[in-house]
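User: Could you check the structure of this?
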Amino acid sequence: MTVKEQKSATEKSETSQMEKLLAEHKLYNIPKVGDLIEGKVISVSSSEVHLDIEGLGTGIVRGNELIDESGDYSDLKIGDKAQATVLELENENRQMELSFRSAGHQKAWDNLDKLLQDKTVLESKVVDANKGGLMVKVKRIEGFLPVSQLTTEHYPRVEGGDKNKILDTLQGYIGKKFKVRVIDVDESENKLIVSEKAAYKEEQQQVLKKYEVGDVVEGKISGVVDFGAFIEFGEGLEGLIHISELAWQRIDDPKNIVQVGDKIKAQIISIDDGRVSLSIKKLKKDPWQDAVDKYKVGQTVTGKVIKINPFGAFVELDKDIHGLAHISELAEQKIADPSEVVKIGEEEKFKILSIEPASHRLGLSLKALDKKSQPKAKREKNKEKEIKPPEPTAQTEQPEKEQKNTAEK
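Assistant: Sure, the predicted structure tokens are below.
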């Protein structure tokens, strides 16, 4: 028998003895590759950890397999118990090859599932940002905190919704710690979504129990955006006053009504799932209630054009009452754009066609006025349209006749 054949026979004999030895240990469950097993730490170094697997020998965890997402085995000491995943039943040194990384990954995602079910509030560190939100670390796993899930304190209130300015604001949070709650977990897609709003929801709802719809609160304007203004009130609460609730008249820019830092009173008009909506105008008398006394259908009024839309022009009759002159009521002839007839900032005379105080609507007409009541500029414009082009004269026809005679010759 050759040396090679002898070596092969020896290896087969040793393998057979190992299999026989494992088979004899009927009191123990023999693990398979991929199984999770537990052992006691018998040695620790920066490059490897040895575990005593009771009844089965020694296992080793080394290299990249020491990385543990759960963080449970980042500071092991001799005598500690640890779980690891079986990579090989026997390596080149006849030790069981084990992994903390695989076991830790599974354990970490199992922990996240538990956090989701228990609605646990925990701290997360912001590690990066993009235009859609913040990247955070939950335990050792990276998750995403969308902008929509930020509390009003951290929500980027950027005028006009400029995405670059939003990103600048979000990047300012890198390195900070936010309290969050896990709201979505999907290990197969490596997806973890967290919410700051959800973390404060329960606490906020307890405070909100002190308030009811209709209550008047006093607070400070904490932010002004295109769609309204935020007001801080009570014990760290914040609500939104929508642009339509800032004043009775039409508003294009909330900053024309309130500024950051203003102290105001507002009435709570809704409390929905922790979101509070308020109104300033509800604390003032509705000017439209007196509109029928001040204005009458058929009355001629002077108003200033304050806005033009494709469907007509908005006209300010006074600081509280605004009306609409529909495009069809601006001229006798059909026009493509209201700006052909009226201009923003100009004052015009209109006839009132309708008044609906309950709906805050007042219909106006320019064409309903007789020609004498129309502005001089419009009368001249209409007059120009009525002038017909002059008939051709004999002088203008002569060249054509001469050309004809020349051609005949």
